[in-house]
Backbone:
């Protein structure tokens, strides 16, 4: 007999994540925090209204695949090339230092009995979690202070763009080694083959989308999102099954390939509603549902505080060092490092991947969630303190800033267009109705013209 409980579970997840996301947004925190809190409250940790079912698990996996696909869609390869030396060095140091410091914390925390991590690969996974940066809060804070179009703001945006790509490369390596226990040479060969496969398939997809664009002539545009989604699913499947690489890496690669096509913006606009309204809330809520907070002890709390400290300090040191190499002054180095300290959805995605692979203990999700929430609170506070006495800054033009603003205004522009179209249609209907009410005038028969006799 078919059970329809999943419908009620889905309704609870969507309603609770939206309500709490709106609440967290009101206090200038990312909406993902609200979705996490919804999962924690409804899950076994508090109310025990929801549990991890096969439906939630599979929808969550599809959600993270679509999330990483849209992240790839939003990554402009041309902007990556234009990021320059400063953006690359800040991102590189901002990935390597947190990776080493995070792995070191996990190792010594395990030795001290603070948490059961589970070996060298688990330590590396902890470091990988700390490599990712979420700059949405940083961007909003800098915009509020009028400091986004500065050298510091532009460097943070460029570094964050490269940071995600480097972090996913690290995840590719670590997750591949944690797969089937094969030798290091076989793993490296599989990774190399995957990148070759992704590159070739990306080129074929680019030509295929170009051919479809020529054939469509502006009609039946829904075939483009469908083809893009098929490409995403195929690359995710092949990455996981044939190459031993995480499926989210295949999804991100598919997004990068589609981002180079002429229909990238249209495809991204079609995926956004599905992702934000259904799949993404389920994914983040499932993380909260699976987190085991009741068993948290004093040792777990201490490890959570240490993880938060390393998360902030490692970005401050790593990104600050990269900025220093690029000849920024000390104050700007601290500002850049602080702006890169915020963690968000990618950290949760990596942690969830480690959990699903059996590399991380489920108890570790608690400290990760605490780190994400606290970084979201601390980053804007620290930025406002650092910029408080800095009144004179030189403004700079930036395509990254313009692109961020363009994405931010997309929904508003769409709504305005729909309202304008609705007004025109209502006006036309009203005019037609008024015209139909007016009495019709009978046409007079034409009178014959009199011919004047000469």
Residues:
């Amino acid at each position: 007999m078919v059970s329809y409980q999943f419908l009620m579970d889905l309704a609870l997840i969507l309603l609770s994540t939206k309500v709490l996301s709106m609440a967290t947004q009101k206090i200038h925190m990312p909406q993902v925090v609200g979705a996490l809190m919804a999962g924690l409250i409804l899950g076994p940790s508090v109310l025990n209204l929801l549990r991890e079912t096969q439906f939630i698990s599979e929808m969550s996996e599809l959600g993270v695949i679509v999330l990483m696909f849209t992240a790839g869609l939003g990554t402009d390869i041309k902007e990556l090339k234009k990021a320059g030396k400063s953006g690359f060095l800040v991102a590189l140091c901002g990935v390597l230092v947190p990776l080493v410091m995070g792995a070191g914390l996990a190792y010594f925390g395990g030795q001290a009995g603070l948490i059961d991590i589970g070996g060298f690969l688990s330590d590396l996974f902890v470091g990988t979690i700390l490599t990712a940066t979420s700059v949405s809060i940083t961007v909003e804070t800098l915009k509020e202070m009028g400091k986004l179009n500065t050298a510091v703001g532009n460097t943070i945006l460029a570094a964050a763009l490269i940071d995600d790509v480097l972090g996913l490369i690290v995840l590719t390596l670590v997750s591949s080694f944690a797969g089937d226990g094969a030798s290091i040479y076989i793993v490296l060969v599989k990774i190399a083959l995957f990148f070759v496969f992704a590159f070739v398939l990306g080129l074929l997809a680019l030509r295929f989308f170009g051919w479809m664009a020529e054939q469509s002539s502006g009609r039946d545009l829904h075939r483009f999102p469908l083809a893009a989604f098929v490409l995403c699913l195929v690359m995710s499947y092949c990455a996981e099954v044939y190459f031993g690489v995480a499926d989210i890496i295949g999804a991100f690669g598919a997004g990068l390939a589609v981002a180079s096509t002429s229909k990238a913006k249209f495809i991204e606009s079609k995926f956004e509603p599905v992702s934000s309204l259904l799949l993404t809330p389920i994914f983040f809520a499932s993380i909260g549902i699976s987190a085991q907070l009741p068993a948290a002890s004093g040792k777990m709390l201490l490890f959570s505080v240490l993880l938060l400290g390393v998360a902030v300090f490692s970005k401050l040191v790593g990104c600050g060092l990269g900025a220093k190499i690029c000849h920024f002054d000390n104050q700007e180095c601290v500002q850049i490092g602080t702006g890169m300290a915020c963690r968000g959805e990618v950290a949760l995605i990596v942690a969830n991947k480690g959990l699903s692979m059996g590399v991380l203990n489920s108890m570790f999700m608690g400290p990760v969630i605490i780190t994400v929430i606290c970084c979201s609170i601390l980053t804007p506070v620290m930025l406002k303190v650092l910029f408080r006495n800095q009144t004179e800054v030189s403004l700079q033009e930036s395509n990254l800033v313009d692109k961020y603003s363009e994405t931010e205004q997309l929904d508003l522009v769409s709504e305005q267009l729909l309202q304008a179209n609705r007004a025109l249609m209502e006006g036309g209907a009203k005019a037609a109705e008024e015209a139909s009410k007016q009495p019709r005038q009978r046409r007079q028969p034409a009178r014959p013209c009199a011919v004047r006799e000469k």
Summary: Residues 184-216 form the longest helix (33 residues). The two ends are 102 Å apart (CA to CA).
